[in-house]
Structure formats: C-alpha cells, structure tokens
Design brief:
The complex is a heterodimer. Chain A is built from nine helices and no strands. Chain A is an all-alpha fold. Chain B has a domain of about 120 residues. Classes of the chains: A mainly alpha, B mainly alpha.
Chain lengths: ~210, ~180
C-alpha cells in the first residue's frame, strides 16, 4: 500500500506526466505492446494472420516511436522555443533568462524541489558535461539564483507552456501524419525480412504479359 | 482577439497544468481524420477495401478519444478522495491521470476495439475484404516438372512407352495398391 502511495505521489512520475515528449513516448511504447498482444489473443483469427497482423502493428508503433524521438522531438522542441522567444513572447519577461529548452528544464526541476537548501546544494554540486567541467551554477544568471532562494520560486509558466505547445504540435504532426508515411515505407521490407510477407516475384510481370500461350 | 493572444493564453494554461489527456486526445483526433483520408487516397487498393479500412481506422480513433478522456478523468478524480493534503492531492491527480491514460493505451482501447468494431462493421454491412490469394497457398513455387527421358537410339528399354501387356488394360497400373505387392 505504501509502495503504491509512493508511486502515485512520486515527483518523478509527475514530471514525466507533465512532459509531453516523455508521456507520448511512454504511451507509444505501451501501444506497441498492447495492440499486438490483443491481436495475438484473438481467437477468431487463424495463427498465420495473427502473427502477421501483430508483427505489422508492432513494427508500425516501433517505427512511429523511432521517427518521433529522432526527428520530431528535437526539431519541434528547439524550433518551438526559438519561435516563441523571438516572435510570440518577444517583449515578455522570462524568456531572456534561458538560452534553450535544456536550461529551462534544469531550472524547472530545481524550482519544483520544495526545499531551498536542497536546491542550492544541487546547483553547487552539478557540473556540466563539457570538457571544461564548469559548474551548472555559472550558466544561471542573478535573477534565476534569486528566484531559487525564494520559498516559492517563479516557474515561468509561459516558457513551460510554449515548450509544451510546440511539443504537442510536433507530436500531433509527427505521430498522426509524418511517422505513418515513413513506417509504411519501412514495414513491408521489414516483414519480408522476417519471412512474414512473400517477396514480389520479378517473373510475375512476365507471366502476365505472356498471353499467347 | 489576435492569434498571438490565443497562443499566449494557450501557453499560459499549458504551463500551469498540462494534463496528460490533452496530447493523446489531440493525436487521436488528427489520426481519426488523416488516416482514413490517406487510406481513401490510396490508388492501389480496391474501393471496397479502402472503404472498409478507412472506416475501421476512423472507428478505432473514435473509440480512443472518449476512452483516453474517460480513463484519465476517472483516475484523476480518485486523487481528491484518497489524499487530504492539497499539494499531495494535486500531484497524485496528475500521476493518476497519466496512469489512467497509459491503462487506456495498453488495455482499454485494444479491448474495446476488439469487442466493438466487428459488430459495428457488421451492422453497417461492411465485411472484411477477402484476400485476392490465400496466404497459405504457395503460388510462387512451381509444380514438379516432368523430366525428359533421354532417348537413346540403340537402347529400346529407355524409350518412354507403355508395355504391350498394359497398353489397353490400365487397371493393372491404376487404383489403390492396397493388398498388392
């Protein structure tokens, strides 16, 4: 019971739930398990068809996920943030404190921590993963450090909203329009490779042409 | 209200509370419109197949939208009943909504689709188009070919002709062989 309560009130799970990219990726993974699973347990279909349909569904979801993570996420995340910063929220306070999405997400994670002491300790410890091994703190300006010292720091909801909106637009366009087209081109060669679909015979065309016999 | 203001308001609302149901419902809605459209535009399939597939895809997404919303909202409502602390309840609401959406994606939607789609399609009078060729039939491999027996000029036994005894009396060589040596 305590374990269940811990999961339900987990701050990490809440962070995933509030993050469009992570939640969509997790749901697509679940779909790639659930849908083929239900096809396989269907008793009305013969085993060959079940195998074929389940493999096709799995490959479709897996390709969608791969395309989404590799193309849509970086493009729309970066592009959306830049567009919001330079066009939509041009004269709005908050955006000038962050150079990119990564910087904002790091700040947000610290701001979500209820303890001021823990926030500052984490900030002082963390080192950037670059060659110079500089402290993360050096990337923070005075405004952000002042906010982190407050009991309830400003979470810059406009910035978060702009990131999430661009992620939602990217997810919709990517998963509903772009990824299915890519997966359509990939699925049939993959099924042929797995031996679940027969190769098109080059002779078939000739056989059709041969009408005189 | 200008488009800029609408976007700003949307961003503010999403920044304060980005419900896990928003994105999945948006994806399902666009999929429900675009996938049947793409299917209907396919020129390689027959009209019957296109109609059947497009309707099936549309129905799947039509089932998915209320399922996501229902599972997410119902799970979220449990939070206020289980937790009294306001901060914990708010976090639990987000988490439970997300768990509800995941459950919908993993179990509820596939189960609802497998139960509901077939009867709906039957009621609409649409049946799964039969495959042009049976998958179990091996149409590619060729039937065993008769090999030509080499005809040797000076060796009569190699010629492919009936023996005199069986020439007009085929029943010796045909029929069931049971009981014969």
């Amino acid at each position: 019971m305590i374990g269940l309560t811990n999961i339900v009130t987990s701050s990490q799970l809440a962070s995933i739930a509030q993050n469009t990219t992570q939640s969509v990726a997790l749901e697509t993974t679940l779909k790639s398990i659930g849908r083929p699973g239900f096809i396989l347990i269907d008793k009305d279909i013969d085993s060959n068809t079940k195998q074929y349909a389940a493999a096709k569904e799995f490959l479709y979801q897996a390709t969608c996920l791969a395309v989404y993570m590799a193309l849509i996420v970086p493009v729309f995340r970066k592009g959306g943030f830049k567009f919001a910063k330079e066009k939509i929220f041009k004269n709005t306070a908050g955006f000038e404190n962050f150079a990119n999405v990564k910087e904002y997400m790091h700040y947000r994670k610290l701001a979500d921590n209820p303890s001021v002491k823990n926030r500052i300790q984490t900030l002082d410890k963390e080192i950037l993963t670059d060659a110079n091994k500089t402290l993360v703190r050096e990337k923070y300006n005075d405004t952000l450090i002042k906010e982190l010292h407050k009991e309830t720091p400003d979470k810059f909801t406009d910035v978060k909203g702009a990131i999430e909106l661009s992620n939602i637009i990217g997810s919709v366009l990517g998963l509903a329009i772009f990824a299915p087209q890519v997966s359509h081109a990939f699925i049939h060669p993959a099924l042929r490779f797995l031996g679940l679909e027969e190769k098109k015979q080059p002779q078939q065309k000739d056989q059709q042409l041969d009408t005189t016999v | 209200m200008s488009i800029n203001n609408i976007i700003k308001k949307t961003c503010k609302a999403l920044g304060e509370n980005n419900k896990p149901t928003y994105v999945v419902m948006a994806i399902a809605t666009v999929k429900g419109i675009c996938r049947p459209l793409f299917t209907m535009m396919d020129k390689t399939e027959s009209p019957e197949t296109k109609k059947y597939t497009a309707l099936r895809e549309g129905l799947t997404e039509a089932i998915a939208i209320p399922a996501y919303w229902g599972c997410g909202e119902m799970a979220g409502k449990l939070a206020s009943k289980c937790f009294e602390d306001k901060h914990l309840a708010s976090r639990a609401k987000t988490n439970l909504m997300f768990i509800g959406v995941c459950t919908a994606a993993l179990f509820v939607i596939p189960a609802l689709c497998s139960v509901a789609i077939k009867p709906i399609m039957d009621k609409l009078g649409l049946k799964a188009p039969e495959k042009k060729e049976d998958k179990n039939l091996d149409i590619n491999s060729q039937a065993p070919q008769m090999t030509k027996t080499p005809i040797l000029q000076n060796n009569k036994t190699a010629l492919n002709y009936y023996s005199r005894a069986g020439m007009f009396n085929n029943n010796i060589y045909s029929g069931m062989k049971a009981g014969r040596i």
